[in-house]
Specification:
about 0% strand, single chain, about 80% helix, mainly alpha
Length: about 230
């Protein structure tokens, strides 16, 4: 900011004081205007960032609710399948009989693949990168940060759980055998057992994540449609 002083002849101290006061007032006015413009810019940036973050979190919540409902239903099927396989393997049932029962129990439409929501975080990353997150109201910013932290914890938890309970190559092979009717009872039992454990943990984690949304942003959670 540069202010060019007006070149006038100062014949008295009074003239000097008036001239000095005008310069000071001009500087203060310019500084005030600059501060107001910057504040308005920060408010717009914060409002834009909040809108984008909440839109992103709303999509994530929809995915969490959708996957939680779907996985809870699949868990019921898995638990029933596991109970049947335990009894069938104990009783020495042949593979053909077991496969027929599985087809009937799952209606021929069943997969052992674990399905998880894709939780986005691009809007949050942008807000942090361009510093607009720092202009959001502190209380609301804390809720946003908490939810994104919960999302990260959820993904790490499920990644660790899956790596412990499931081996992708074996899971895919057994799933393919199940689809073409060549799955072996004992191997299928072991895979279903591991899958049931992973699915149960996924449902619990999804339920906890949904409750975190409802706790941190109740307005957003109420506005988002519940999964059926």
């Amino acid at each position: 900011m540069h202010i060019e002083p007006v070149k006038v002849r100062l014949d008295s101290f009074k003239d000097f004081a008036k001239h000095y006061l005008m310069i000071v007032l001009s500087i203060l006015t310019a500084l005030g205007l600059e501060a107001w413009i910057e504040h308005a810019h920060h408010e717009r940036a914060a409002a834009t960032a909040s809108a984008q973050i909440e839109a992103e979190l709303s999509v994530n919540l929809d995915q969490v609710r959708l996957m939680r409902g779907a996985d809870a239903k699949r868990l019921v099927v898995l638990e029933g399948l596991y109970d049947y396989l335990v009894q069938a393997v104990k009783g020495g049932a042949d593979a053909a009989t077991i496969r027929q029962r599985i087809d009937a129990q799952t209606r021929g439409d069943f997969s052992l693949n674990l399905q998880l929501p894709r939780l986005r975080h691009e809007a949050w990353d942008v807000a942090v990168a361009n510093q607009s997150a720092g202009w959001i109201d502190t209380g609301r910013l804390r809720h946003y940060a908490t939810l994104y932290a919960y999302q990260g914890d959820f993904e790490r938890r499920l990644s660790f759980n899956t790596s412990v309970n499931l081996q992708d190559a074996q899971l895919n092979r057994v799933d393919a055998d199940l689809r073409v009717g060549t799955a072996q009872p004992a191997e299928l039992l072991h895979t279903v057992s591991a899958m049931t454990s992973s699915m149960g943990d996924a449902v619990i984690a999804l339920d906890s994540l949904e409750k975190a949304f409802e706790r941190e942003l109740p307005g957003l959670a109420a506005a988002a449609p519940a999964a059926h």
